[in-house]
Batch of 2 targets.
Target 1
Amino acid sequence: MKRAIAKHKLAVKVIVSTALIAFLLTKVSISDLIRIVSSIDPGLVLASMACYFVSNVLGAYQWHLLLASSGIRLRFAQTFQFYFVGLFFNNFLPANIGGDAIKVYDVSRVGSSVYQVIAVTLLDRLLGIFSLCVLALGAVAYVARSDQPGPYGLYVIVFAACMVPALGFYFIKPLGNWLRRTVMRVRSLSLDVRISSVLDHLGKFKGKKPLVLQLVGLSIVIQAMRVYTHILVALALAIPLTALAKAQFFVFVPLLSLAMIPPITINGLGIREGLGIVLFANAGLSAADAFAMEFLTFVASVIVSLVGFLMFVSRRQRAPKEVDRVSDSGI
């Protein structure tokens, strides 16, 4: 029954994404799309994929450090595999969190507490959101000094509002206490006990502020590389970009990332392109430019994630083996 429901939800999301893409294709010039794609620079496309790949290697390292700090000791090669398998499934499961569920399963099945792994993976995700918003706020401050009009106050409100839930429970003690009291009222399906256990594991990181702050710095680098992936794709499509336009990418791409969180499409397909057309018009991009850029960025990310697919297929084909563990000095 649950499997049938999951398949139904997935089918609905595929239909929504397909319908959105089909609708957008009626709003852009097909001849312009053909012209843009025909001028593609393969070298810059490869550069964009390399940038995205390195950002995910760093993302795997960040997750590895969090796992190790919580007491889950795995070789980096194993963490790398789990991370990239999750990255692959992120491209095909809803809300960009399906891959996180795969990662939690992979780590917990080698002997770690599932709530502990959920807590670490959740913190990893929250660090990403927090750092993305920090990066975006810096870009807003830079762009706002130009003559380019825009709803900068609204951008600040959006990013600040996302930063508070992301790590507010960590830095703001009253908010953390309120969250725990609220959770304890949710009795159905023992959610109070389950979520409280996750919060207990998250609470252990409150005594590790230097580590968390260092990881915020690392996460900012990761998010900046993912934004720059979009810029490289734009350059690959021969889309002219001024310095100001490049700075605007660091505002608009985070907005796209936040908009893709609701689980209504497959990894934001359709939402990314549609909202991209609206936002990047402020950076001087035509509808065809924005659509081609965002769709090609999605394709590039899927190609990179095939590394995870190959790892997934490989481990399914060989006999199950016990995952190697290492000592504290083996990280």
Note: Residues 18-316 form one domain.
Target 2
Amino acid sequence: MSRIEKTVFVSYRRTNASWALNVFQDLTQHGYDAFIDFQGIASGGFERVILENIRARAHFLVLLTPSALEHCGDPKDWLRREIETAMESRRNVVPVMLDGFDFEAPSNASRLTGQLLALKDYNALRVYAEYFAAAMDRLREKFLNVPLDAVLHPASASARQAAEAQQAAASAAPAVGQEELTAQTWFEKGFNAADLDEKIRCYAEAIRLKPDYAEAYNNRGIARADRGDLNGELKDYAEAIRLKPDYAEAYNNRGGARAAKGDHDGAVKDFAESIRLKPDYANAYYNRGVARTAKGDHEGAVKDYAEAIRLKPDFAEAYGNRGIARRGKGDLYGALKDYAKAIRLKPDFAEAYNNRGLARAAKGDFEGALKDYAEAIRLKPDFAEAYGNRGNARTAKGDPASAKAAIADYQKYLDLGGGIRNGNQAEAEQFIRDLKNKL
């Protein structure tokens, strides 16, 4: 009979660190050689150390909570890469499903793509907080008590040293208390909740139980943003950053909140810090581009969108916004190319059709502009700005039939609230009166 290996790699999302530490400490106390990236490995050797240690261990545990797969749609996501490496290396993969996780939840199903789709076919262990000890007994006695015939790949000396340093730090850490585990349970409830007030309540409870829970502050900030509480979200992001100064996502989120308040200088600073902490953060480059466009820095915005596109080549919104920045610079040809690319990547991108219409109108191509506005309206029937822009293009054509159609477009623009929202209600009403007088 093949020998039973007692070597384990524990894979987890940082928001679930307490659960991961609890699992690690239990395994270590029962004689297992377990690996956990507890303190964080220096970026230079991170990839090598992680991948070598996956291949060097017989068993691979991946801790799954409702939020765990949140970023797994990104091929570069590290949790995804760890799982894929374990599958490719034919490790004994054990999905550890913590309270609230469901493979069939729509949010999870949409992220289980490619090789990751097979994850739900593995024999999984369900763990409930109140029965943690019993679940760990079952893990050791059933799930890890199996022979592994695949050849293990010994890790290099440096990878072993890094693993030992992480093991020592994790072993020396205080035992995880019940309150901390309960805080993570509340965090996951908040992540899973559909109602914004319920989300905020759950995150608040997680923070009460674990006052240094930076991720809970960040997520409560997101929920407050969705509820329109700008001041509340700013306070939450600030606290998340105070607790975790290298929290790139919190800087990015605070930048968005500052931009929403009109503080574009502060937003640019936050996005820049987010990028410094996480140089491959495509969304932060994109968001800084938006803030720079709002400041009138079209040149800087074009550079930011270009970097976002380099990092994420199918980023339709970045192409669309680079088109806006290029049009702001007077580069109508470049803008048209970007809008066309955005539309190819995202055929239902109503805003890109509307903006391409503006660029075509600026070049005097009113027929092309009208076609784009019509498609924008077909895709988004309540798109007030597209009606207003089509009214402008029809007015520019100058013939009576176009003028009559323009009146209907301007009226629809007003009916949909475009005039109030954009502060040009009186101007649009005057356009209608002038056109009627001409007719």
Note: The chain has three domains: 7-176, 177-245, 257-334.
